Amino acid sequence: MTTTTTPPAERAEAPAGPRKVRSGSVIGSTGLYVATGIAALLFLVPFYLIVRNALMTDPEITGEEWKWFPSEIQWGNISKPFDDPSVDFARSLWNSAVVGVLHTLGTLLVCSLAGYGLARIPYKHANKVFYAVLVTLMVPTAVTFVPSFVLVSSLGWVDTYRGLIIPGLFSGFTCFLFRQYFLGFPKELEEAARVDGLGYMGAYWRVVVPNSLNFFAAMATITFISGWNSFLWPLVIGQDPSAWTVQVALSNYMTGQTITYHLIFMATAISILPLVFVFLFLQRWLVQGIAQTGIKG
């Protein structure tokens, strides 16, 4: 006689209800978005004022009644900086581009080699050299202007690209960032390169640099923006109008007799465009590169 057993009833699963969201997290996220939005608006205010004033007439800019937008957009203001006979604005843009690119490439080469040597090459005085590099960060730039100018002048580099670029190739801060990055670079990759017969220089060029392009791009962004915006040194070296950079050219639109506001703002807007394009193109590498330096706030 056979008996049949019925399987136990399967436990019924309760339908999953809606997840409870903590009110504190919602308020915190909302506050974060609001604060970020306010900070973004405050950051964009100067750009709004530059574009607004660049497309206005001088009476509208200096008028008593505030206007959020031009009553009539002055598109003809765009060509005025290039038509001004007192300042060769196109030449100054070209000079800034040449100085910015060559200054960036030279600084990356010099400072990356210095940072790699301080981080990897065994040398009993390496820490002393590193501390000496840090000391240079405490010296005001204006203090070195006179001896630097005397040296550049004695070499005949006044009003030349060499005088504008070479004295500023080394940066203690950039060297420090490269050293911090290379200290955290995986040593296993370099050891494998040395097994293949490469020295320090070979490992640097064939292993370290190809695997550090994100960080190099971040440093290139910072260095290019700094070189493009530099004013005091180009003002001292670029004495001839043909050697003016864009920042020096902008300062010449303001004279003791006249100030043409729409011309200044339009020239400023045009000079900002290359920096905006560089930043938008390399911004993600900029954030990643700074995060890879090992610096903690």
From TrEMBL:
Keywords: Cell membrane, Membrane, Transmembrane, Transmembrane helix, Transport. SUPFAM superfamilies: MetI-like. It is a multi-pass membrane protein. InterPro entries: MetI-like (IPR000515), MetI-like_sf (IPR035906). Residues 1-18 have a biased composition (Low complexity). Its main location: membrane. CDD domains: TM_PBP2 (cd06261). It is found in: Cell membrane. Residues 1-22 are annotated as: Disordered. The chain crosses the membrane at residues 30-51, 93-117, 129-152, 164-182, 203-225, 259-282. Belongs to the binding-protein-dependent transport system permease family. This is Carbohydrate ABC transporter permease. The lineage of its organism: Bacteria, Bacillati, Actinomycetota, Actinomycetes, Kitasatosporales.
